[in-house]
Amino acid sequence: VLGLLVWALIADTTYYLHAAYGWVMFVSIFFWILTVLFFVIYLLQLQLKFYIIPWPLLLMIFNAVATALYVTAFVTCAAAVQPTSWRQWDYNRRAAASFFACLVMITYGVSTFFSFRAWKGLGSNAATSQVTDRA
């Protein structure tokens, strides 16, 4: 939802007049689509059918790359906001997009941390460590 807000707010401005917002739009739309795709895969439990793919590692790499690119998108978006803009509504939307880009960046960073823990198996507890796959 936060990623959707970023690109929706930017898309509602005259972003095409500023090259910096093209990068922000690319990052936000690209990772929004991939996040929705991963969400559908996990919602439908399709990752169980493709057991050859190391899903925890893939998810950790995805979140780390999304975090790194959202850092650049956030900095670009925040630096391109011009408070002396002649169009006040563009300023408000771009400032809000910068705020939500920061929130998305933090969210992907936290997801990277938890994905790393899941990949390393550090998130298990006593109940999950006692389960075996004996038939």
Automatic annotation (TrEMBL):
Q: Which GO terms describe its molecular function?
A: structural constituent of myelin sheath
Q: Which organism is it from?
A: Upupa epops (Eurasian hoopoe)
Major localisation:
membrane
- Spell out where the chain crosses the membrane: 20-44, 56-81, 96-116
Which domain of life does the protein's organism represent? Answer: Eukaryota
A GO BP entry is: myelination
* Record keywords, A-Z: Cell membrane, Membrane, Transmembrane, Transmembrane helix
- Subunit (UniProt): Forms oligomers.
Q: Name one GO cellular component term.
A: myelin sheath
Record domain MARVEL: where: 1-120
Q: Which PANTHER family does this chain map to?
A: MARVEL-CONTAINING POTENTIAL LIPID RAFT-ASSOCIATED PROTEIN, PLASMOLIPIN
Q: Which Pfam families match?
A: MARVEL
What is this protein's name?
Plasmolipin
- State the annotated membrane topology for this chain: Multi-pass membrane protein
Similarity section? Belongs to the MAL family.
- Could you tell me where this protein is found in the cell? Apical cell membrane; Myelin membrane
